[in-house]
Each structure stands twice: as C-alpha cells, then as structure tokens.
# Entry
Amino acid sequence: MQKKPENKKVEDTVQNVGEQAQQAVEQAQEQAQQVVGQAQQEVARSRAPWYQVLRRTHVLIGFYAVQFILFGLLAWFVRIHPVIPVDVAITREFQENRSPLLSTLMVAVSYLGNSGLVFPLLIGLTALVFWAVRLRLEAALIVVLSAVSAVVNVGIKLLVSRPRPTAKLVEIIQHASGASFPSGHVMSYVAFFGLLFSLGVILLKRDRLWHYALLIISALFVILVGPSRIYLGDHWASDVIGGYLFGGMLLGISLWIYLKLKEKGVLALPPKMKAGKIATHSNSNGAR
# Structure
C-alpha cells in the first residue's frame, strides 16, 4: 500500500521531465525559425531590382559566350602539340622563387579540388543555405552546374588526352593522375565560386559588408586556383587557361538558362506563401 504514492511521484517526475523536454524542443524550433526568417528578410532586402538583374546578366552572358571559340582553338592546338615551350617557361618562372609559405598557400588553395568529400559537402551546404533563404532556383543551379562541370571535364580530358607535366621538364610538387587538359580544379572552382560571384553581382545591391565578403572570397578562389595548379606542377598554363575558358562558357550558358527560368517563375514561392511566412514571422516577434 505504501508503494502507490511512490509510483505516483515517479510518474509525475517523468511527466514533468517530458514536458520540459518538449518545451525545450519548441523553443529551439522557434529560435531556428527566427534565424531563418531574419536571413530571408536580409536577403530579400538585399535583392537588386529586376531590371538591373536583366542588364547585368546579359552583360555577363555576352562575356562568357566569347570564350567558347577561344577554348575550341586552344583544345585543338594542345592536342596536336602536347608540350609547348611557352608552357614550360611559364611553369619554371612560377617555381623559380619557391618558399614554404608560398607552397603552403598554393596547396591550401587547391585543397578543395583535391578532396572528394569536403568540396561536395560545401556545395551541398551552400545550396541548402540558398534554399533556406528562398533562393530555390539559385540553389538548384549551384548543384547542377557543379555536377555538369565535373562530367564535362572528364569527357574533354578523354577527348584531348594531353599528358600532364613531367619531372624531366618542371618540378612536380604535388602529383596528380589522369589527363591534363583542361584543368579540373579551375573548371570546378569557376562552376562553384564563379557562380557565387556572378549571383552576388546579379542579385545583390552591395550595400552590406557580407555582400563584399562573398564577392571577394569567391573571386580570390577563382583567381588563385589557376596559378596554384601551375606552381604545383600539376598543369600547364594552357591547361589552366582552357579551364577558365570552358568553365566560363558553362557559367555563361547556365546564367542564360537561369534568366529564362527566373522569368518563368520556376521554383519560385507563390506570393501568398511568401506573405504568409513573413506575417507569421512578424506575429511571432510581436508576441515575444
């Protein structure tokens, strides 16, 4: 008979713990929604007017389209002449003033392209962030362009079949396998960081510090990856140029497709859903 009160007390304790855990989960969900809501409002406020988006996109598309002809000529030339004296001279010039600090920097810049796990995770995480702030078409474009760039790079390398630099001609600081033309690192960096830079130029007003941080970091990766591949002895300068040209062309095509899909409202949230989310977020802030 004395155990009943004890059992009741245990049940009450368990129930209280359960209620507290549920309250903690609800608070965590509310805080997460608040953070996402603030990010969505910040991105929405930073968006440039659509007429500016159209003008900027067309300018970028025109610039990228010119690169296709140049790439075709270069691919044809290096297939016939796998070793070009000017390539050897450029690599030796890059490697003439080697230092531990410079070598570390070049290896660090190329690290993402060498990782079969970290870079895909970064691409996926970036796409999720874009999706969370209601840039759904942009999120899809980030994933698709990176995947297409990787597949096309393999195809071109098989077609051109240019051998990589050898230790007889230059210093090989970091060994790489496979064909040499065009540089896969450069193409993948242009596809990801180049796209982030282009979206920043197209969509943002550039009146926030993080706007410029996005543009500067993306641009630095795109600019530095080419010299890093030459310095490390993984690619010839013409491989790097080919990577920039073809990567830029893919980027231009992607932006053209993006513009067309954007005009049609593909993956755009319905206006009522947008208004409802903003109103819900405002009411929750007011309730606090």
In short: The radius of gyration is 26 Å. The chain has one domain: 47-278.
